[in-house]
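Recap for those who missed Tuesday's class. We walked through two folding examples back to back. For each one, the amino acid string is listed first and its predicted structure tokens come directly after. Nothing is annotated here on purpose, so try labeling regions yourself before you check the end of the notes.
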Amino acid sequence: MTAKSRTKGAVGEREIIYILQQHFPHEHIERNFAQAARGGCDFVLFNQFACEVKRYQKGKSFLTAWWDQACDQAIRAKLLPALFYRFDRQPWRVVIARNLQTFEQHKFDSVDDFVKAHQGRTRSALRVVATTD
């Protein structure tokens, strides 16, 4: 991975975390800085989702390799996979699985749609925690 690619990924992580913090201002969200050295997801959301963040220049849909990585990280963390992705000059999109057995994908066309689907949770269920190894 090139330095430019790592920088773009880190910017994407900070961007999506900032957006989530706007929707859930009382929650503490941190990037997993150990991910490059030891692996692991980019961050954990709601104590339920192992989140991967991807930024890419062009495309119409997420890459299978991105979803596979999200699923692999989720299995390791014993959580459900969530993939936040965005192409240049496009909105963020989200893909989650609701079941670790089938990894059936549920797609959201925007982060706002994802947030609306998860707004009804209690504050304790909305806890966003940093991944630490």
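Example two. Treat it independently of the first, because the proteins are unrelated.
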Amino acid sequence: MPSKTGTLTLIACLSACNVAFRFILAGGPPDIKPVAFLVIVGGIVAGPLAGFGAGFLSMTLSDLTSPFGAGVWTMESSVCMGIIGLIAGFVWSKSLSFNRWRLAITGFTLTAFFDISTSVIDAILYSYPWFPAVLALYIPFMPGNQSPYPFGFIHELTTAVLLGTIGPPLIQQVRKVYR
């Protein structure tokens, strides 16, 4: 069993990487970010509570240090990303081997949960219809949606590809150091 210091170190490292990646990739294509990927890895390696901590801290710190600043959305996105790490920890933390397809599908599903739940919460908080907000994640050029870019699908696909390709070896390497 790893020490509490080791767990806190892992949470801090994953959170710092996520904050850096959100800034580095901010000018690139939207939603090509490995945040959910690293949060899921944290939950798998260190368990549900560490996964929640990595997700919550990643989103909170990146919003607090962002030029846009923190707002009402910070708490919702932080809690939802934390829930992704929590679920990943419950589902995968005891597994010794990983099927790339199952990891990819789980990552896609958990990231879809994040995107949909934050869209619905935003719609409720800012008093606009939630169903078009969710559809706008996946349908480019939808009436009322100014973006030709399927933000949700790209976010989920990025997480799935990362988990399916470099996920298993990264998890094994981090586990060797962590345990």
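Answers for example two:
The mean pLDDT is 89.
The longest helix spans residues 100-125.
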